Amino acid sequence: NHCEFYDKKIAQKRHEEKELMKLFEASLKNKDFQVYLQPKVPTDNKEVLQAEALVRWVHPEKGMIYPDKFIPLLEKYDRIGELDLYMFEAVCQIAERWLKEGRVGAGISVNLSRKPLLREGKEICEKYKRIKDKYNIPDGLIKLELTESALFDFSDIQTVQEILDGFHDIGLKLALDDFGFAYSSLALLGEFDIDVLKLDRAFFINDNERTPKIVESIIKLAHELGICVVAEGIEVEHQVETLTELNCDFIQGYYYSKPLPVAEFEAWRESYEKQRA
Question: I need a labelling partner for 210 at 20 to 30 A (CA). Which of 116, 256, 270, 273 fits?
Fold first, then answer.
């Protein structure tokens, strides 16, 4: 429903999109999509270090292809659900190995995209249950991260709650990602049963004297509702100090570490645990 002038950039972009989509299926089979883990560091020493799983496409010929290149493309062609399930299974494999190594409680979160949720509704829970059961993952160990926009896209609240209940029923916890960006509404916390609230980095980019008061109020409200709070995108020490004072539960960001390949994350975690002890 719009007009635009043709130029070579449009043709080039379409060509690149087609090339990436041709590579996608083979890359899934060949496991070219790799899990990178970014630590979620607890502000309270009683809590266990956690991590968020992020996807990187490492193609044998194309090299590293970053998410901003392929995620919108997979959403456009409705293939993002396949990647979501691939990543969930990869995370289950990691969690299973950690449990066998005695690393109890090292929880991992993984993203769940909007489109498959909208298309499949509550039926999607069965797909995740089969994978979770295949690797004997204990309840509560893995979290699914959903954006606020995913919840707002449904026409009625009851449908959303049924889906969330379905995930809870199979033992998965739920995190509300990017809270404080675009769609944000405190009403979401009243309507939906969420386990974790992730404060968007927008709160901390241009922080001023008002920001800590806003963040403190959100943290207090979340805690009164029994919701854990994670601050993401944290890069400097004074932000860590402020969030610790405000009783934020976990801090995620470059201040501690960028997303790391699994082996590097495990080495980072070992070093962190030694320092903590």
Answer: 256
